[in-house]
Amino acid sequence: MENKNLALTQGMTNDKIGQITVRKVKRLKKIRGSMVWFFAVMFMFNMAANFVHPVTPTIIVDLELGDAMFGLALAAMMLCNFLFSPFWGKMAGLLSSRKVMLISGFGYAAGQVLFGLARTEIEFLLARMFAGIFVGGCYVSFLTYTANCSPEEKRGKNLAINATISSVSASFGYFVGGLIGEVNVYASVWLQAAALALTALILFFLCRDDKQTDARSMQGKAWLRACNPFSVILQCRHFLTRALVFLFLAYGLGNLGYIAFEQCFNYFLKKQFQLTSGYNGIIKAILGLISLAANGTLCMWILRQKRVSAYLAGVMAVCTAAMIGVIFFEQPLPFILVNVLFFAFYFVSVPLMQNRAAVLGNGPQSNLVMGAFNAVKSFGSIFGSALAGVIYTWHPKLPFVFGFIAFALAALMAFMMSREEAKAA
User: Which residues of 143-178 are buried (b: 16+ CB within 10 A; e: fewer)?
Assistant: First the structure.
């Protein structure tokens, strides 16, 4: 009798353990498929990716690398980002976005270790180029995962959240990196490398598998074509419409102007106003809060309207107007205030751009569209950062003049895209 009761008790216990295990598995699956958790970890990754930016001007000045290096180093990074973004877009479809996140996150972390060890201009540029190969993979996989794993009715909204997180987390990353840099500039570098690797690992276990093609079915020349960034770039011509062309031009020109502007802004605060990395970080954190408010109100309101592209053109026009004040103001306070206006509206424009890319590029080629979209951003960054570094040596305000011209053209391209969408409606 006792043995029977014991067996019954053990059976009940095993059933209970089984129920608990099932509940845990279900909870784990729910977490793994949750976009909320994905966005939370993505926020931490993006913060870490910006830890080094506020201390980079100090490192360049301390190593006596020359004023142009602040732009040339980013240009070297973005050159590789541009070349490999379509490749990573292809790989996201073959391997899955989460595997690309893991590979790229660890590669990016390794690149930052090399950056921290660099002491000469050549080492500096090579470290930036190595990191740039993997930076594209990180951000393309974030975009493709968001697009692939969002329900159709939430895809545009989630891509807007993706862009908002990228913008706002960057500002808080500046804040953290700037404060740590007050203690030791290289502490920001080592913390960044560790955080990038850790968050990439978390994302790999947290995200679902969104693989679209079986990589084992590809052999020989097919793999070589998939691994050739120029081949993947050429494939983009098959899905381009007039509206997408104008969108890519607006995004590329806007990023061209923004990178020239933003890189000069950081260096300008250090070189012209003698502000330390801590001040740089605090200013960017304030800009992040303002941008968060702008994205949570103005951006979301625009996304609910029928003519999103028309409002986008207006937002780009405000950025262009703000550039005029940046060019002419000389005192720190008015200079920073007009920059607040520029950054707030620019950060609203990014989610709107991604929304239009998701809408206009929706279909079987969406991975390639997102890869090309990120490549266009990188293409603008290459010339924006390189040109900013060179013309800054001629006059500190010239990168702002260049940014004004680029944004004026971007606003025009956004207006043309709006007209194309209106014709197709």
Answer: bbbbbbbbeeeebbbbbbbbbbbbbbbbbbbbbbbb
Other CB atoms within a 10 A radius of the CB of residue 305 amount to 10
Q: Please tell me the CATH code under which domain 34-207+220-424 is placed.
A: 1.20.1250.20
CA angle 94, 100, 103 (to 5 degrees): 130
Q: Is the pLDDT of residue 6 over 60?
A: no
Tokens of 58: 């100090």
Distance of alpha carbon 142 from alpha carbon 135, whole angstroms: 11
- Provide the 10 A C-beta neighbour count for residue 319: 27
pLDDT class of 359 with cuts at 50, 70, 90: confident
> What pTM did the predictor assign?
0.72
Number of Cβ within a 10 Å radius of residue 356? 26
Nearest to 255 by CA among 10, 74, 24, 11: 74
Side chain identity, residue 335: F
Q: Which residue has the tokens 């590979």?
A: 103
Q: What is the DSSP letter of 51?
A: S
What are the structure tokens assigned to 8, written together?
């019954």
H helix or E strand, kind and range, residue 346: helix 332-360
For the segment 194-250, what is each residue's pLDDT rounded down to a tens digit? Answer: 999 999 999 999 898 877 665 555 555 665 565 566 665 666 667 778 888 899 899
